[in-house]
Amino acid sequence: MLEIKNLHATVGGKEILKGVDLVVKSGEIHALMGQNGAGKSTLSNVLVGHPAYTVTEGTVTFNGKDLLAMTPDERSHEGLFLSFQQPVEIPGVSMVNFMRAALNAKRKYQGLEPLDASAFLKLMREKRKIVELDNKLTSRSVNEGFSGGEKKRNEIFQMALLEPTLSILDETDSGLDVDALRIVAEGFNKLRTPQTAAIVITHYQRLLDYLKPDVVHVLIDGRIVKTGGPELALEIEQRGFDWIKEEA
Amino acid sequence: MNQYLEFFRTQRQRIDGNSHPVLNAHREAAAAAFERLGFPSQKVERYKYTDVATAFAPNYGISLSGTTDSLRKTESPDNPLALSHYGTLADVDADAITALNTMLVQEVSIIHIPAGIHRENPIQVTHTLHSTAPLMQNRRLLIVAEAGAHVQVLLNERADEGQDFLTTQVTEVFVGEGAHVEIYDIESTHERCHRFHQLFADVAAGGRFTHATFTLSGGLTRNQTDVRLSGEGAEVNLLGCAITDGQQHVDNNTLIDHRAPGCRSRELYKYVVDQQSTGAFAGRVLVRQEAQRTDSEERNANLVCTDEARMWTQPMLEIYADDVKCSHGSTVGQLNDDALFYLRQRGISEAEARTLLKQAFASEVINEIPLEALRQRLHAMVEKRFRSCEDCRLCKKG
Prior knowledge:
Chain A is of the alpha/beta class. Chain A has ten helices and twelve strands. In chain A, strand 11 (215-220) and strand 12 form a beta hairpin.
């Protein structure tokens, strides 16, 4: 599904990614771990086409297509979704208008008719249940006045509506209490199918207990230096990253 | 300038002949003031953002015969009480455009609400500029709300395409004790329209005045709004939203004069300035010594969408009382890049994302309006305005 080869990227002239190689297949969950500044968020931002990041070398193929040649909205239509580490508040843009514009843009890209207002509201009601998101929140402006947990639930709610094939969860567990983490993780799990895949960026085993990754990668200084099974995450939880640095 | 004085002197008889004696009684003093003042240069503080003389330089036709009745009996018949207010707030000696308007105006629309009367439905006044040749129109509006009266007024201004128009309008508003007056003024004209509006309001004790001006499209617009809070506990809420592109210019100049204790003023103006257009906002809040316990907030926020677009902002606070709560501020910025990217990640195109964010920016002003139906109409008008902007007639020309 996703094939990253020798990816180098800079932000503000500084090289952060220094040759990342990664292959993600349908049905897989990949955990991406590493200390702050290792390049985890840079990798996710580069994949979704954030304009502040410049790719200087390497290729990314997504379902056989050149991902780096696409605009951010095309990448979204092709099935790529980022659950933001810090979802932005957008006063004055209602959740309903936002998600309807997003969903209908995708449907247009797929050659489908736009959903009318009542069909869309019905769909919203259904999807809200997945993350137990209150009706009051979806009738507000995007993320405005949402608590940290509500913002993360809202990310998974948007994911449920857009049905991406590859989701990147960028520290979706940060700032969540135990209950909110469970709701978010269980919501995510309900959306999994054999055709979907995910890259989960996290510092903690807690989220991985729920999501059960197939593969765990460790990113240090812009490169993936170690790859293993779920047991690698448990080992990092106990021993930290220093031993991997020494090995590398 | 001379062409207007000459027109007045040579056509005086016809002007007077088609007008009400009260209007005629003010002309001589207005002409003298206009001759003395001349068109204000950009060195005059309140006119520094708008080139008045150039706007008034071309030869426009003025209709002398079109008026069938010099008193448009909008709300009440020939009304000596209302007419006795004519010209008492709009000072011809203080402002050349007010003087010019008073010198030439041939009709006045009167809205008079007697004491204690609550108008259920808003009164709508629509001006459509229509002409086969360049036309100047001078208009006058007089609103008198006696004690405890409530009225909402909707003003719409439109214009035929493909013609040059110049309008002056002087509005005098008297908000009596405990009266509520709301005026919503929507301009949707085109790039060949020049508009100079002066509004003067006096708010008596416990009275409440709301004035909102929406410049959705136009050529050159200057709105001057002067509000006097002259009785204890009077309130004013000034709102403005301007959406500009092409070569458009919008200048809102306001004065809120706190003359009595315990008054409250709120002011919010927002601009979205695109392409090569220019916007200006100057808002002066004057708190006189006797205006203790004044509560005042003034805010101007602006989105400047291109490198060529320009915005001037000048909030001014002048306080002579010591027990007051006042704030003022302005911001000039671009669309929030994080918000823009968030929308794009969800599959919304860049153009659509920009439209949504601009609409959201303008919606703060619209949401201040208590009339649900008007809010919905304005949201729709603003959306239409931004959507057509992407491929509007101005862009297509280029």
